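Re: the pair you flagged

First of the two:
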Amino acid sequence: MSAAPLLLAWLVFASTPATPTAAPKSVYALDDDAFIDQAQADLEQLERYTRGLRRLQDEVKQSRALYLQKQSVPYTPDQKQQLLTTWATFFDYFVSTEVIRQRYWDFVKVPSLTQPKKHAWGFLLTHGALTTELAHGLTYAELTGGRKQLETLLDEPSAEYGVPPRAFARFKDKVIHVATTTQLYTGDTYKEQLRPLLVKAGALDAPRVPWVMQEMKLNSEVAKGLLVKRGPTMFAKAAVDVTQDSTQRAFFPVQRAVAEWMGDTRVHRTGQPLISREQALGVLKRMEPGDIMVARQNWYLSNIGLPGFWPHAELFVGTAQELAAYFDEDTDVKAWVATLPGKPASFSAHLASAYPAKWAEYSGKDSHGDPIRIIESISEGVSFTGLEHGMRVDYLGIMRPRLPRVDKARAILRAFAYQGRPYDFDFDFFSDQTLVCTELVWKSYAPSKEMRGLAVPLVDVVGRRTLPANELVRLFDAEHGRDSRQLDFVAFLDGREGEGLAKEADEAAFRYSYRRAKWDIAQE
């Protein structure tokens, strides 16, 4: 047996055993072009997750004293909040990276001679994800492992941050595992032997491939350095937890069978969200310009690095005709518009004159032929979108600000000003040059001298002030029933992954939804 097949055999042998399950269709079932498109998209995601983990590592270094605090000294509430948000953010990135690794793991079954592109790209994604996990995972495990008070805190369920019970113990089992370490060393050797195939597949010159090759090298050096220096100690500390935790593979989302199912769902449910077009059209009849939406697509989670079940928020503005009908004849809106430069005839006329190019785009249709109805910040930037993009998701919640129409008009005017700006991958709420999805909603409705707006408090996540979409639903729940509440319930379309559909749910279900675990495969 030659060296390369032998290494492949070792990679297969080193794979963590999977719980028996119905074999899902694989990403490798795609044709070559579709597969490479998917692989390049996942490589872009991997780069984002890696940048996020590096930022997180910098934050942890700055608060290292907290992690080294004497275990006899109880953590304060603020310290617990900092530790939990850091862990939840790390968990988010770690699981997301593992999903990519597991999705491409079957490259070992793809013949390199007959399918060189799939074999080469599959290895790049698999080993790139593994080295990222181990470099950052072992660093985090070295800092946190063996500290009783800290491990107890991190192992407790934290639904508000999207972390399931015993997640920390299961994380240790994955990152401090002989099989995972074997994959690291074997994969590094195989990478060097695979270079001719990478050249043959045309992969080395593709976007981000030089980056991932360098990243694999750097991360592997970090991981191996930690294993040489601290490996025996970490393995010894983890051994008891691992042997006692015999049920871990039945729940933890990074377990191979679950991750494959996630990848299969993502590939084969593309363009087939749980919410049907008919359901989205039905909900539209109850909506008004200025409504706030929270949305979720399973396995396409945006805002990786922010905790919570709900990852995305959007601002509903309605069609140009609906917007004009809602605002233009309102007395307060007309009085406000009369004070604006040029004394426009109406609110819609002001938008058209102040932002002619944006108004033209907004008045048109999307790529599906639907009217534009939504402003949202997505990876392409702050965009005008329609029903298919913004509402045909897997879960959709709609809330209505309890504000006069003139305040909603001012919010929409602000949103128009932000349209076209880049997406904020750093979640920096103190810059207006780039915006994340919740930042668009938050800044559009921010109180000012001229408008009451919405008082939505930012929260600390890993030392920065930001706003996960989950916090909007938490606020709705906290204020429910009060005369001073800021938001009213409009609708909730609740996905059912197992049934392949969504059902309309009531206000009570929506109030509870933000407590769901972000990575709970059952989706309750």
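Second of the two:
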Amino acid sequence: MRRVTMVVLSVVCVTLLGVVTNVATGALPDEWTPHLWLAWPALAVVVVALMVVEIRRARESAPVTGVAAAHARRVLLDRVRRYWITSVLERSLHREARIQLGVTASADDRRYPWTLRATHRDGFAGVLDGGASVAGLFERLDRAVVILGAPGSGKTTTLLELARELIAVAERDPDAPAPVVLNLSSWATRRLPLEQWLAAELTERYGIPARQATAWIEAGAVLPLLDGLDEVVAARRDECAAAIAAFHARQPLTPIAICCRESEYRELRTGLPVYGTVTIQPLTRPQIERYLDRSGPALAGLRAALAADEGLWEFTGSPLLLAIMGLAYADGPGPTDGPGGRRTRLFARYVETMLRHRPHPAYRPDQAVQYLTVLGHQLSKRQQSIFVLDLVAPTWSPFWVGHGADLLSRALASVAVGGLVALLGAGLLGWPGLVVGLAATTLTMLALAHEDYDDLELIASRERRPEDRAIRVNWVTGTADELRDVAGNAVVGWATVAAALLVGLAFGLTDELRGWPGLLADFAYWLGLLLTTLVALAVTRAMLFDLYLIGPPGGAPRREIPSPALRQRLRFAATGAPLLGVVTGALAGLPVGLARTGVDGLRYGAVVGVFAASYLLVAVALGPLAEQWLVRRRLARDGVLPRPLRPFLDYAVQCLFLRDVGDGYIFVHRELLEFFADRLTTSDAQMLSRP
């Protein structure tokens, strides 16, 4: 705060110096006097630019103090505990099933029924039961391990047990690295070097400032616990393993743990840089029978189902499926035949039982299944594990033909910009100001029609974004590149020239100047609007590109609209719009002031500057915000997703279908996600029925 205050004081001093200089120049020649007003807009531009540069420089040069780093570390540990230990581990399906069914723990009952087999590359091997310390095993394996197992075997639970013990160590020892649980499925989206991906995830998932996250990773102060290597899309899985290996080669002393299905791990062409493996053993029939016997009448329904269908025993080796079976058959055995195989019938029975035991007045069981089917299908389609509200798109509805919300949001944004400019222009410039408003509406609509302002992945796919290295937007060169692209666009470029010419003619009709002075004034109005439009379009596109690279922040409030990414856009646009308005206003007002009077230049600059600032606001944030509202409304009307969505997601958490993780949600297991995803394919989208 003191640094920012000093910056503001220095800027004020520069401003006062400019005023004193302006007063002192009273001795200038008389022929300069009509043009002295130009010093004020020039001074305003310099002051704003100086303030922005100084504040950014001060922030970049500010050291990470010990107090700030310690506070950020406490915040990180607290969020890892809340997101993963409290919300996921302590509400694991194994535990929730025991609570739901009333299974009482016996004196010799272990925390989890599975067994861990550990091997070290130096030859050490051992078998540990569910009561062993996972952190102790992690230390024995030199703190670089991969946790392997079959689907549903308990890999993630074991990883989270390790996280819980490491959090306790980190809270006691300030020098111990802070454990961070991250899902690797998102790595394939941008395929960054692992250090940069880790920093981006710390910022996006946990709300840690980017500079602090980068400093921690470089210092080895973060202990990555990486879940779901098998969930990375198959075409990128070996690349992800290579990125992990390269990271460990650069930072060999940083501890690391990775989870992966055993079959996918064996198929990797790139080995993981680990010292040992922890393999979760499948449950044996004697173990399962002992577990059933100790549970008493609580699992009588499951025992009856196993007796009625011997084929169900093939699923009991998985702790996940064993817990699901206990809940699914709590009311007794179900039908032994029907559509799909045994696994499909098992999950269907589980979903039916949980919805019957935990009904909700706002969601019928068939509606709840339909909503979960859409979520599972879309996550599977995008190879993602965590659902966040920003994933919702109009393409989720099979009834939505065309781009209604997209076009309507762009039209509304264009009319809003033009209306604002027309009102201000009419007040300051008379009826030619209405022409400026009409030009603003047309140019905004045309620019938005040719700008993928709501498709960040498409923006990032431009040629200047190589996949093999990190990239940061240089606002000077980036904006210059965008300016060249905008000017070279035949439709937008010529439309901008024509609109500016129309504005120049409108002012020319009301101008009393004749001859060359009149033509010069018309040219000044034309040039001002032309420059303003091109700069506004270029800066907006550069800002959208930068927004893709930095990603949305974490730790956002749990609100639906605006969603987390749109809140980031709103803050970004609110910061950049005033500066863009001042700069473009000066560009537009300067030639008009030179050709006519200073007052005319200031008025015209104000109107055109408002146009540029408001265009940036609608293109970066307000337009996508309107589209988001329209999309949610349409999806609810089509019965695809409820509105609001969060209450339903929280209900799905209560039914043990989902888990909330920070600002997002995950299915309790990937197999349940796949069950819902398989219910909806492209060929049977008609199964979704309108309400």
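The beta strands are 115-120, 125-128, 144-149, 178-183, 222-227, 256-261, 276-281, 386-387, 658-661, 664-667.

-B.
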